[in-house]
Amino acid sequence: MFDEIGFPRGPDLDDGAPILESFVYCSRAAEGVDDVAVDRIIEWSQRSNVERDITGVLVFGSGVFFQWIEGPPAEVKTLIASLHGDPRHYDIVPLDRSVEQRERLYPNWEMERVGADDIREVLQDALESAEDENNIAALKRILKHLDRGPLDTLVRR
Ligand SMILES: Cc1cc2nc3c(=O)[nH]c(=O)nc-3n(C[C@H](O)[C@H](O)[C@H](O)COP(=O)(O)O)c2cc1C
């Protein structure tokens, strides 16, 4: 109703959810990329993502990555280009990419590392608390991928 300096908002100003791009993919870790290397990626990502207003989760297990990224479209686009040029992983398989006006699924996670066994639970929790229709639809798509897609071996070892 009021902006940050206390003036009433005009009727044309939308104070709703931000425009967010999300990108979800899985990939295979390059040879030699172990737990320590992944912790280094997380450390770097948390610092860099704060500056870019990007949030998300990264799963690593059985040599496979699964990552959910969300943030301003221009920043996410730049990060996707960097990810494609990063020799620490290969065989990047996009699972979901969309631009929508919605709330963040992981507002407090600059990039949280989640165990492979927990990813279903993390997504299920997000689904249970999600109110935004677009978020609900995206989460259902990802959970479906987990059930029968390339992540099958990662989650059900
Ligand atoms: C699996 C994986 C996940 C990554 N996640 C992020 C991330 O969330 N944020 C980030 O800034 N860099 C991340 N990186 C590192 C980027 O690929 C890249 O090295 C970094 O953004 C620097 O890119 P630049 O050299 O193009 O500036 C990740 C790398 C890997 C292998």
TrEMBL record:
Pfam families: BLUF
GO molecular function, one term: blue light photoreceptor activity
Limits of the BLUF domain: 20-112
InterPro entries on file: Acylphosphatase-like_dom_sf (IPR036046), BLUF_domain (IPR007024)
Domain of life: Bacteria
Name of this chain's protein: Blue light sensor protein
Organism: Sandarakinorhabdus fusca
